[in-house]
């Protein structure tokens, strides 16, 4: 254990700091496709009973009209976050009629590309902008890739904790600059160690054959409808999932916030020739927001993002530049198809421990060799993480993934104890022990369990996923959501529909004029 890490742990073990630590905030965004009860993608509009996808704060859509996204408030206890996520699920399931939520991250059998519906957000200029952005994703990456679902885990450390650390380290930077630098340091460590999350929680070792649309691949045949890799943990996070040639050269440096925001600013204003060939418009119809490497900053696919809540009309990079990093968003979490919510409390407790460890552990700047090695380690684990004696690159040396993983978990024990002391529980330490068991026995990982279930049931990936989806739909109906909570979500839906109506009734310029103003703000 390094001196810096030991010193920070000792500081946060003091009673006043320990009392502040339980004000860390945790939020979850969970995506899930709506499917028919036979597993086929739902081609119906977003259910009106769920409210407006444009203005609802908790229930919206991501890319496809069928890809629901559930967003919790940030809570000081992960148990509260999961309780809210459970409520949202129960309300949604009760209003899906003959449809169910798809249980895993990877889609089942998909219809022809052109039949996959893109999210609709009404007739306002703001709503049309969201739709055009998704049309741009379709022409750039294809609609199939946009049907992948995941979990985004949002995490922040209280300002008071940063103040304790800043004062103890006698750091002369402003509070905002110090906090941003420390969050960037957290992200660097996340880049170093996030391969561990892929091993422990990756749950997408197989895909439906329709996902590839005839593309070349290195996968093996599981059955006539399913492709897989025997040791894969997360094909979702492999180069089969979110891939972009345009973004291949865009690797924002996480050595300081300004280098990150500068690289994103550059990407949203730098033309990309293949996108220029497509054009922004054709026959008067908008095809994409612009022809640059990124249409907007949110298009950048990364395993973690620094975040700051934006003001109305404010771009994310401007918010980060003006007011610093407020929280981080871990974006590489697969949906566990064995869990109704796709995630459970032990996993959340481990993520909290892991993220606190990344924040407190030493985090040297990423060198020109360590950066690509971190990417290579991540990709090795997503494609072959359960391979016996898999070797990773640690500062130029080959090291066993299992041994490195056990070392990291051992180093995290002090963070787990810290959180247990703060929250007066033992759940963080217990969650850590569950991960030790997975490192010692790969058969306990979700990815191994998915393949084992498919073999045991002699079924394809889509058949397995549908069975899980129907089981979860039943589990989320009993017990039914309390009547007061049903009324709450019905009121939120009603308010969101009214809010969209209000936006659409306001006087508006033409969409072309609106886009001129929007693009002037981007460039």
UniProtKB/TrEMBL annotation:
Superkingdom to which the source organism belongs: Bacteria
SUPFAM superfamilies the record matches: Glutamine synthetase/guanido kinase
EC nos: 6.3.2.2
Gene Ontology BP, a term: glutathione biosynthetic process
Molecular functions per Gene Ontology: ATP binding; glutamate-cysteine ligase activity; metal ion binding
Reactions this protein catalyses: L-cysteine + L-glutamate + ATP = gamma-L-glutamyl-L-cysteine + ADP + phosphate + H(+)
EC top class named in words: ligase
Keywords of the record: ATP-binding, Glutathione biosynthesis, Ligase, Nucleotide-binding
GO cellular component, one term: cytosol
One Pfam family in the UniProt entry: Glu_cys_ligase
Boundaries of every Glutamate--cysteine ligase domain copy: 10-380
Pathway of action: Sulfur metabolism; glutathione biosynthesis; glutathione from L-cysteine and L-glutamate: step 1/2
Family: Belongs to the glutamate--cysteine ligase type 1 family. Type 1 subfamily.
Xref: HAMAP family: Glu_cys_ligase
Name of the protein described by the UniProt record: Glutamate--cysteine ligase
Organism: Denitrificimonas caeni
